[in-house]
Amino acid sequence: MSHLCEVIIIAVPPSNMKDVFDSMHNSFTKNHFEIDAGEFDAIVLSDIDTDDGEDYIFESERINPESEEEKDNAIERLRNHRTGGLIYYSGIDEKFEGLAPYNLAVEFLSLDNMTIECISISLRNYVFDSHETAFENLITTVLNTMNVIGIAKGLDYPYEWSDQEVTELMKEGKLETVHPRLVYKKE
């Protein structure tokens, strides 16, 4: 059985990975989320393309930490990796009613191969629906603590759009025209 994913895309001015990662991590921790520590949780470092697009300076790397020390080292590598990558967060059980949100894929994306311009948070829609207030609080924290160009939010239908496309549309002020259902408006 497949499930749709709810996606929150945050467009930011080109910034170094460490600053963006630290700001997002602080936003998550303020809202009772922590980096997943499960045995299947991996950290992925994104690839770095050459200018000609035919080769890689760095091919993507998946890290499956087996100890706390390996996890800390992998997180540090991600914080310093210029083209970003992927890490998973979960809600802290004691801070949520019922089952805490889990398996939030947080991807830091580079559009120029040098800086981070997009953070994409995706999770199963049924997890989002049962904790919508927590995610609204997370978005509020991000808006209050980070320099944000725009935020898009909605269900991810396969092949309808890419995170990179949505980010470019937000930067150009055209998201509402092209994908109006993704426009995030604070309620």
Write a structural description.
It is a single chain. The protein has helices at 17-30, 68-79, 125-130, 132-145, 163-172, 175-178, and strands at residues 5-15, 33-35, 43-45, 48-49, 56-58, 61-63, 84-91, 104-109, 116-124, 150-156. With 187 residues, the protein is of the alpha+beta class. The strands form 2 sheets. Strands 1, 2, 3, 6, 7, 8, 9 and 10 form an 8-stranded antiparallel sheet that branches. Strands 4-5 form a two-stranded antiparallel sheet. Strand 4 (48-49) and strand 5 form a beta hairpin. Helix 1 crosses helix 4. It starts with a strand and ends in a 9-residue tail after the last helix. The relative contact order is 0.24.
Strand content: 25-35%
Biggest sheet overview: 8 strands, antiparallel
SSE pattern: EHEEEEEHEEEHHEHH
Structural category is: alpha+beta
Low-confidence stretches: none
What is the 3D shape?
A: globular
What is the radius of gyration computed over CA atoms, rounded to a whole number of angstroms?
Answer: 16 Å
Number of strands: 10
Head-to-tail CA distance between termini: 32 Å
Number of helices: 6
Estimate percent helicity: 25-40%
Query: How would you state the average pLDDT, rounded?
Result: 87
Write the layout of secondary structure elements.
Layout: E1 5-15, H1 17-30, E2 33-35, E3 43-45, E4 48-49, E5 56-58, E6 61-63, H2 68-79, E7 84-91, E8 104-109, E9 116-124, H3 125-130, H4 132-145, E10 150-156, H5 163-172, H6 175-178
Antiparallel strand pairs: 1-9, 1-10, 2-7, 3-6, 3-7, 4-5, 7-8, 8-9
Helix pairs in contact: 1-4
